[in-house]
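@channel sequence for tomorrow's demo:
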Amino acid sequence: MSKNTNTALGLLLGGAIGATLGILFAPDKGSNTRQKLKDDAVTTKDKLADKALHLKDQVAGSLTNHKQSLDSQLETIVSDVSYKADDVISTLENKLKDLKARNKKLQK
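structure tokens (generated this afternoon):
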């Protein structure tokens, strides 16, 4: 026999022995094993779905907290700018008042 024939025969024999041992030492019937695998797959899918929803809720809560923090910071900035604008307007009004007074003196 050739080397390829011996290899093919060895693979077939090994597969047959493996299948026979699998059938002989299987803990349960094939239909029961398939049902267990199906049940485990469904349970795993449900657990993953629950974890995904939990993660989504955590991310949404985190984003909400960050949004509130940003809104608060923006409100503080707008308030500060408003006070600064009032200060600038007051300063400009005082400068204008001084310039009008100087202009009156120069016109006399």
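heads up for whoever presents: Residues 30-107 form the longest helix (78 residues).
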